[in-house]
Known about the structure:
By secondary structure, the protein is mainly α. The protein is 54% helix and 0% strand. It is built from 5 helices and no strands. The protein has helices spanning 12-23, 34-45, 47-61, 74-78, 85-91.
Amino acid sequence: xxxxxxxxxxxxxxxxxxxxxxxxxxxxxxxxxxxxxxxxxxxxxxxxxxxxxxxxxxxxxxxxxxxxxxxxxxxxxxxxxxxxxxxxxxxxxx
Length: 94
């Protein structure tokens, strides 16, 4: 079995830190609920898509042990190294 995703996981605080470093200013992560996400995203991507994504986030938050274990990570089993958040920001020109 190969776990799909990045290990260690990208976190909200980690994203804020990477954006802050790239932008040269403080960026703070402010966690919101799946419902708050749906409400804020619906005008941008449509109610149906926002509800689907919010539902997925809600379901994931209720799943114990959903983390990727190092021994089943794609990085270890397939020998791949995911790009860092900083590398991804560079790739999109930030």
